[in-house]
Amino acid sequence: MGLLDSLVKxxxxxxxxxxxxxxxxxxxAPLELRREILDNVEDHVVIAKGARKFPFDQIVVRFRxxxxxxxxxxxxxxxEDAVLEQDIRRLLRESGCRVPSNLEVLLDFTDLTAxxxxxxxxxxxxxxxxxxxxxxxxxGRRAAECGFTVVKGAAELxxxxxxxxxxxxxxxxEIVDPDGQIVRRNDIVFVDNGDDINSTVSRAHATIWAAExxxxxxxxxxxxxxxxxxxxxxxxxxxxxxxxxxxxxxxGDEIYLGRACLRFETGT
Length: 268
Prior knowledge:
By secondary structure, the protein is α+β, with helices and mostly antiparallel strands. It folds into 2 domains: about 1-10 and about 55-135, no CATH class; about 145-265, Tumour Suppressor Smad4 (Sandwich). Helix content is about 20%, strand content about 35%. The protein contains 4 helices and 20 strands. The chain has helices at about 5-20, 30-45, 70-80, 85-95, and strands at about 45-50, 50-55, 60-65, 95-100, 105-110, 120-130, 135, 145-150, 160, 165-170, 175, 180-185, 190, 205-210, 215-220, 230, 235-240, 245-250, 255, 260-265. The strands form 5 sheets. It has a 6-stranded antiparallel beta sheet with strand order 9-8-20-19-16-17, with no helix packed on it. Helix 2 (about 30-45) crosses helix 4 (about 85-95). It is globular and about 60 Å long. It starts with a helix and ends with a strand.
């Protein structure tokens, strides 16, 4: 079972349990927060000496603008059976990252707001090395910029300039599970027009992530049906399906998603 399939299966269990306890639709907000928390954790995995590592041993998740009623739903979704900590450990493990033996996940629900009716709860994630204290973003630091030009196939845009730590590529804007819940939003979107080229792009085809420790971007094939390849200097490089380390990209690479193609450029 791939990482995406594993996380979706866990999500379906949470939805059934929360909707059964609190009513249909109650699980929507906690599941959206769960995806945000897991994305934040995965964005902080680094590569050091050729190995993927998570350089923190404490994660504090603070929920904001939470009503007393919402708090009970969030506590049931994340605290019961330590489900959030299990999700984080599974994410790190299946991403090929060694899980810190002393990893601690703490949840803070103290920001109660009695008049927050209608305001969705927010989440803040604080990562720490307990001997060093919390890690704060450097002033003015931003994710590296990169660009993509559509060479073959039809996408919503012909050119994309993105400044994100993680870029999702696929067919359709949003990917939903069998219950109609959103599990992924693509950043580079090939249209679902039924033509021969676009039909070879999977809905959740590939992920491109910024490996800041090495100053590079890497691409991962998300178990797509027709595969992902890089064409560079007259040679073809296969991107292994489901390998979370992926393949490093170079400016000027042509990325083939099935038969569709993007040209990758780093920011200036």
